[in-house]
Write a structure and sequence with these properties.
The complex is a heterodimer. Chain A has eleven helices and 16 strands. Chain A is of the alpha/beta class. In chain A, the strands form three sheets. Chain A has a seven-stranded mixed β-sheet, covered by helices on one side. In chain A, strands 1-5-8-12-14-13 form a six-stranded mixed β-sheet. Among the domains of chain B are: 102 residues, Roll (PH-domain like); 153 residues, no CATH class; 74 residues, no CATH class; 162 residues, Alpha Horseshoe (Leucine-rich Repeat Variant), CATH 1.25.10; 67 residues, no CATH class. Chain B is 60% helix and 6% strand. Chain B has 41 helices and seven strands. The two termini of chain B are 42 Å apart. Classes of the chains: A alpha/beta, B mainly alpha. At the A-B interface, α2, α5, α6, α7 and α10 of A face β1, β2, β7, α10 and α13 of B. Chain B: One of its GO terms (molecular function) is protein phosphatase activator activity.
Chain lengths: 431, 894
């Protein structure tokens, strides 16, 4: 068993590794991340995850639901730290897995992967508590600076395969999936499917869900009557529609980014022109990618967050069209149902921190994109090695299909697996 | 009296929910109607499946807090304290019932004020709140106690009445014995009830109650009950074990005042409550009450310590070199460290007093002791204390340092620099680099030293230090600091560079970059005299990519300054050749190093920095032409051609500064960027006394002249170096004169113009349409979107708040060590933070002494800076906002 495997085992048990090991880990991670582009290319199949926020036990739950590394490929869209009480364990475990299985796991930067934000929202404090000095925080922040800003998932299938190996197949519906493209499975804490639904993409009326950000009893009663209600209502009410319409053999790429779009970025290639090795700036393209939010507006709007922008459906449509994208996956906003598609399925928010802050009562989700095997596994784009566009986009865009999406919705880890979450108290005190 | 509200005519399909144990229990689906029976407005829901079954029948009273949430929800609390919700299938149905409820309530209210005794629930409520009674504290009554408390906690009036009762009857001490009894009986239900009772008591967030809770005889009972959380039925925490452990309290030097000792213990318990026991359930008001209590205790503790001369004397005598008690020394360092950490949360004057007293008792000697300590953890702690000092007042620390230089003692800076060179622990090295960065920050105007020194703590300060002296010290220190960098000159290859060297050079180049950005003039001499730029350029060739990146960042910073001196430095050497080599090595791979290079050339292109464009295209034209995988380099050549008059005439907008570029506006690594500032007096003086001025102007002349010559259309590109800096005075002079009558006006503004006009320029460019290729094709975001609703998610991180308001005062948190943060915090703490803290302080003081009315205000204000959706809001927020609605749901779950 290598040191790294031992560190992984230790972290999985929610026990920290020594400071020297953290440092080595961070250096190794740095060497890996420096080779990654600002936009990492990732081949399907991959499971896309949103904010984690130091909820270590829920991260373990996520792995239970989605399958373990390296059996499942993962893409985490940032915000690993802050707010939860186990930011260190969560981030270090993900980093260990990254170093151990570099091709199996992709980490991109969230707005919380920043010196300034972590000093306010808990990660800095946690490092001081758990290691006695800010050194580990410094090492981690150094790694933050190297994290990629986005990822492009290529070769996603437009059809869903039967549920992967992560689950006990007997617990789920075995209804054959024809050309259904959107599937939702609700899992309880034992990993059993308690609810599942399919939506054939074609002909499904677009039902843009209303604001889902409030904590409240379920509101969509028409679709839930008869189901066992979850505490905060059934997920899957976020609807979808067809964006491009016509058929083709391929799906467009899926852009994954923590926040959203930027008015300074009109093509994905522009992201490659950012020198990302820096603290997240307060404005500019890099800031926007990590801070922006989609909203039901036209064009761009000011963000109430004070950083980034709000962007409307027209912006998303235009950007996706221009960049041959079928979907933008992003995180950054709490969604009570775990995920929420907007703008005719042009963008989705994936949120992976159940019962956020240990009190919000939301469910979480992960998004699985299957592999398109119809072309023998070849993909039409790769990591910039060839045919990087020189700003002139081809105009023939018809036939980009949305990828098949399987959302696995899950709840917070069962309480018997995690104990009572709390911060680490000081060992000694003088004052 | 007949009600005139028109009940809705048809039935609305709806689901009925009831809040049970924090879960919304589904009572069934049915059809909702509003009716008036016996002159009382009511809501009925009949079951869908069994039409005879009534799912809900409730009377609408004028005081019930009905709330409409989103489009389809109505939520309220029944008189018996149960939370109910109606979830409508359609928004339209919800609106109809909502109108009915609203109308009925308005009618009832107007009738009540008109003197109709229609509904006496209100006066009943008032009375019952004023005289709220809890059943006697006995095990058998626990369910009732729990119930009454929950119900009373719903409203502010109830909470106030409950608090009064609990305090008056000394209820908490009477509850405590029940914990032991229930434990003896192993009665888990009772323990669970006790736990929720304790939670409710604490969440009343009454100062007196919380202070009672943490007293010696009460605390163990309270946390004992809290060990049995009904939400974790299979778990039992061990709070008592932790809090009962007396050995956790270390006393280096005994604190004799019993009151202070008491406060220290209470503070520790409060922190434990906040961080561990209540970590999950704290709402914002309680959080801020806890923080205020901790804060005021700390103020008193620190005040006691700093004014206690004998105590300080004994404390610092621990470090007497003759004493061999190493453990005690370490503990004393820890003690000081904790003091410094606490001081960070205090207001500036209190902090200043503490530090001044520490310093006069020999704090610097202690720091010197720690940073030479063989144990890296001690070194870390020592530097942390130093960083806290720097964070508090860098000018003061610098003053002491310069005083030492004046007295021909070894200044702290030299010690730190030497240690930085030798330190092998990378964490400590990092801290040292940060400390050196701030200590030597060339930006800070020294004149301020005197102005800021108050009469109380200015005594140990040196008198006016001349700027020349400061410059000398900076030069000397910088010279010492960059020796290792300078030594690279003798190395032919950097392939054998060691791990430690890589770390050191990374820090040195980073510091150098910081200096250049902070004060380009003061740094010039160092860079020039020590010949540092070529050394950094050498680092572009190391195998370690992250070091390459740091070197690249240095040059990127030089370019962004648009200063002719630095431009000359880069065009003089083969710097761009080395950078292009990196592009070649990495292309067309998409990685960080490649992107960083591309960004650098994009910036040159976008800003149209002529001397560099000319230099690069002329010298490396072939290399550029061969890079075709991105358009950047071809664009550069195009720019060049345009300058030569080959291409189409360059649009005038290209000359404008584009402040919209992210890299320009925001410095790397979060360090502050203050722009090219107007010259302050020190700089002015520096200019007047320095020969650089001449050279500097010459550069401009040379620059524009050269550009002019090019434009005038010399067919063969000039091959000789563009700028002969700095050795060719006569030549420059000649060029200078030549430039006089040329078309300078159309050129890019000279560096000097930029210096003086930056604020305006920045403002202008903020509104002007970006002319850069990056942004020209996209929609420009609107300046203002007034009708945009504010969104209310609690997960919103708001950047504005980070910089504009103080963060939630947390006694255990401390400022980060990075110099960038130091700089930032410094400016905040002097200005807005201090003011805001003061405001909060006064308000909370109001809580302690004042009546009930100011309390609400105090809570709101003091919690405001942190209520940035960090924690779900509590019921104390404004009514009728969405946030409030959700907050209430939370409040109950707590």
């Amino acid at each position: 068993m290598s040191d790294l495997d031992r560190a992984i085992a230790q972290l999985r048990a929610c026990r920290l590794i020594p400071e020297t090991q953290v440092r080595e880990l961070c250096y190794k991670a740095r060497e890996l991340l420096i080779e990654e582009g600002n936009v990492v290319s990732v081949d399907a199949p991959v499971t896309i995850c949103g904010d984690i926020h130091g909820q270590f036990h829920d991260l373990m739950e996520l792995f239970r639901v989605g399958g373990d590394v390296p059996d499942t490929n993962y893409l985490f869209m940032g915000d690993f730290v802050d707010r939860g009480f186990y930011s260190l364990e969560s981030f270090l475990l993900l980093l260990c897995l990254k170093v151990r299985y570099p091709d199996r796991i992709t980490l991109i930067r969230g707005n919380h992967e920043s010196r300034q934000i972590t000093t306010v929202y808990g990660f800095y404090d946690e490092c001081i508590r758990k290691y006695g000095s800010a050194n580990v925080w410094r090492h981690c922040c150094e790694v933050f600076d190297y994290l990629a800003l986005g990822a492009l998932v290529l070769g996603a299938s437009s059809e869903l395969e039967p549920t992967g190996p992560a689950l006990n197949d007997t617990t789920q519906s075995t209804m054959p999936i024809d050309s259904g493209e959107l599937e939702t499975e609700v899992l309880n804490s034992k990993g059993e499917v308690t609810y599942s639904s399919y939506r054939p993409r074609q002909g499904v009326p677009s039902d843009v869900s209303t604001d889902a950000r409030n904590i409240s009893p379920p509101r969509d009663i028409s679709s839930t009557t008869g189901q066992t209600p979850l505490r905060s209502g059934p997920p899957g009410t976020g609807a979808s529609g067809e964006g491009a319409g016509s058929y083709s053999s391929r799906t467009g790429a899926v852009l994954c980014v923590h926040g959203g779009l930027s008015p300074l970025i009109d093509t994905v290639d522009k992201i490659r022109l950012i020198d990302r090795k820096q603290e997240v700036p307060h404005e500019g393209a890099m800031c926007d990618l990590l801070w922006s939010d989609p909203d039901e507006i036209d064009g761009w709007g000011l963000s109430p967050r004070g950083a980034g922008f709000l962007f409307g459906g027209d912006i998303v449509k235009q950007f996706n069209y221009r960049n041959d994208l079928s979907l933008i996956a992003r995180a950054h906003q709490l969604v009570m149902e775990g995920y929420k598609e907007m703008f005719d399925g042009g963008i989705v928010t994936v949120w992976s921190a159940p019962n956020y802050c240990y009190r919000c009562g939301n469910v979480a989700s992960i998004l699985e994109l299957g592999e398109d095997t119809s072309n023998g596994g070849t993909v039409t784009r790769s990591n910039g090695d060839y045919e990087r566009s020189n700003g002139i986009m081809t105009t023939d865009k018809f036939g980009v299909r949305s990828p098949g999406r399987r959302y696995r919705v899950f709840e917070a880890a069962a309480q018997d697996t995690r104990g009572m979450p709390a911060k680490k108290p000081v060992a000694d005190y003088f004052l | 009296m007949a009600l005139e509200v028109q009940p809705p005519s048809d039935r609305k399909r709806v689901k009925v929910y009831e809040l049970r144990d924090n879960d919304w229990f589904d009572r069934g689906t049915g059809f909702c109607t509003g009716q008036i029976l016996d002159d009382e407005p009511r809501i009925f829901v009949e079951s869908e499946d069994e039409p005879d079954r009534v799912l809900l029948e409730t009377k609408i009273s004028k005081d019930d807090g009905y709330q409409k949430q989103q489009e389809t929800l109505i939520v309220w609390t029944e008189p018996n304290g149960t939370d109910m919700a109606l979830s409508f299938q359609e928004a339209e149905g919800c609106a109809v019932i909502w109108n009915f409820v609203n109308g009925a309530q308005q009618q009832l209210t107007s009738m009540a004020t008109a003197g109709f005794p229609l509904d006496d629930a209100f006066s009943d409520d008032l009375e019952s709140y004023q005289s709220i009674m809890l059943p006697a504290p006995e095990l058998g009554n626990l369910p009732d106690i729990d119930h009454v408390m929950r119900a009373a906690s719903m409203t502010q009036a109830g909470r106030d009445a409950l608090s009064k009762f609990v305090i008056r009857e000394e209820y908490i001490p009477k509850l405590i014995p029940l914990v032991a009894v229930a434990e003896d009986l192993e009665s888990l239900p009772d323990l669970h009830r006790l736990c929720s009772i304790m939670k409710s008591l604490i969440l009343l967030n009454d100062n007196t109650i919380i202070e009672t809770v943490v007293t010696e005889h009460i605390i163990l009972g309270v946390v004992g009950a809290l060990e049995y959380d009904p939400e974790f039925p299979t778990h039992k925490a061990n709070h008592r074990q932790y809090l009962a452990d007396q050995s956790r309290y270390k006393e280096v030097v005994p604190i004799k005042d019993p009151l202070i000792r008491h406060k220290i213990q209470c503070t520790w318990r409060l922190q434990y409550l906040k961080d561990v026991v209540l970590a999950r359930i704290l709402d914002d008001p309680t959080f801020s009450v806890l923080n205020s209590l901790i804060f005021f205790n700390q103020v008193e503790i620190v005040n006691h310590i700093q004014s206690n001369g004998p105590f300080l004397k004994e404390l610092f005598s621990v470090f007497d070199p003759r004493s061999a008690d190493a453990k005690r020394k370490e503990d004393a360092v820890q003690f000081l460290h904790q003091c410094a950490a606490i001081a960070k949360n205090l207001q500036a004057p209190a902090r200043a007093n503490l530090f001044a007293n520490f310093i006069s008792h020999g704090l610097f000697a202690v720091i010197a002791f720690t940073i030479k300590h063989p144990n890296p953890a001690m070194r870390t702690t020592g530097i942390d204390i130093l960083v806290a000092l720097l964070d508090h007042d860098p000018i003061m620390v610098r003053g002491y340092m310069l005083k030492a230089v004046n007295e021909k003692k070894t200044p702290l800076t030299d010690t730190l620099i030497d240690l930085l060179h030798m330190e092998s622990d990378l964490g400590v090295k990092n801290q040292l680099a940060d400390a050196v960065k701030v200590l030597l920050d060339p930006q800070v105007p020294l004149q301020d030293t005197m102005g800021r020194a108050g009469p109380d703590y200015s005594k140990p300060r040196p008198n006016i230090i001349s700027d020349v002296f400061v410059q000398n010290h900076f030069d000397e220190s910088a010279k010492r600091l960059f020796i290792p960098l300078k030594r690279l000159e003798n190395r032919a290859s950097l392939n054998d560079i060691t791990f430690q060297e890589v770390a050191l050079h990374a820090h040195l180049v980073d510091i150098l970059t910081f200096f250049v950005r902070q004060h380009l003039y003061r740094s010039r001499a160092v860079i020039h005299n020590e010949g540092l730029a070529p050394r950094v350029a050498q680092l572009l060739t190391v195998p370690q990519k992250h070091l390459k990146l740091i070197a690249l960042k240095f040059f990127r910073t030089l370019i962004s300054l648009q200063d002719t001196f630095y431009q000359a430095l880069m065009t003089h050497n083969n710097t761009f050749g080395l950078i292009l080599d990196i592009v070649y090595e990495t292309m067309p791979r998409d990685n960080l190093l490649n992107s960083a290079c591309l960004e650098l050339f994009e910036f040159i292109k976008r800003e149209n920095i002529k001397p560099i464009v000319l230099h690069v295209v002329e010298k490396y034209g072939e290399k550029l032409r061969n890079i075709t995988y991105v358009s950047t380099f071809q664009d550069l050549i195009l720019r060049y051609d345009q300058m030569q008059g080959y291409g189409t005439e360059v649009e005038p907008t290209l000359y404008s500064q584009d402040e919209g570029t992210p890299a320009r506006r925001v410095p790397p690594n979060g360090q502050r960027w203050q722009g090219v500032r107007e010259m302050d007096a020190a700089e002015e003086e520096y200019f007047n006394t320095s020969d650089d001025e001449e050279e500097w102007q010459h550069d401009n002349g040379a620059n524009t002249t050269m550009a002019t010559e090019m434009q005038n259309g010399s067919a063969s590109p000039v091959v000789k170096p563009l700028v002969d800096y700095p050795d060719d005075d006569e030549d420059d002079d000649a060029m200078d004169t030549k430039a006089e009558g040329s078309e300078e006006q159309t050129q890019q503004p000279s560096a000097q113009q930029q210096v003086t006009s930056t604020p305006d320029a920045a403002a202008e460019s903020a509104v002007e349409t970006p002319s850069t290729p990056v942004s020209s094709t996209v929609q420009v975001p609107p300046e203002r979107l007034s009708e945009k609703r504010r969104r209310e998610e609690e997960d919103d991180d708001e950047l504005v708040k980070l910089s504009s308001g103080p963060k939630r005062r947390s006694s255990t948190s401390s400022n980060p060590g990075s110099a960038g943060m130091l700089a930032k915090k410094r400016s905040v703490s002097i200005g807005s933070l201090a003011a805001a803290e003061k405001g909060a302080t006064q308000n909370v003081l109001g809580t302690v002494t004042g009546s009930a009315a100011p309390k609400r205000i105090a809570i709101n204000i003091s919690s405001k800076p942190s209520s940035e959706t960090d924690y779900p809001d509590s019921a104390a927020s404004t009514p009728n906002s969405e946030k409030e609605n959700r907050g209430e749901n939370h409040g109950e779950s707590g």
